[in-house]
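Posted in: Structural Biology > Protein-Ligand Complexes

Title: Requesting predicted complex, FE2/S2 (inorganic) cluster in pocket

I'd be grateful if someone could produce the 3D structure tokens for the following input. Sequence and ligand are given below.
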Amino acid sequence: MDYSIDCIRYFIIYSRFVTEAIGMKKTIGICMGSSCFARGNREHLELIENYLHGNKIEAEVKFSGCRCRNECGRGPNIEINGCLYHEVDTGTLLDLLVYHFSDVNIGV
Ligand code: FES
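-- Reply #1 --
Done. Output follows.
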């Protein structure tokens, strides 16, 4: 199923609103299946860890790996705050991290 850009924007904004409104912890789920891992999530794993550590927000974000989601052809896949992103490259991932987590307060 393909979504228009407007539809994707709606999902991103809605998921961010719901997450903040009900006080849910923010989440990142990275697909660790062999296809996604080989197609970029090996590097993305380290990039996400460095981003969370560098911004001192590890405690505020639940970061976990997941098994293959049967979306291999559209990988590498990463889920952030309930939105599943496909064909993620390094530049897109950095943009997504800034978008989703730039407002996270440091848990000091
Ligand atoms: S390996 Fe990631 S969806 Fe299959």
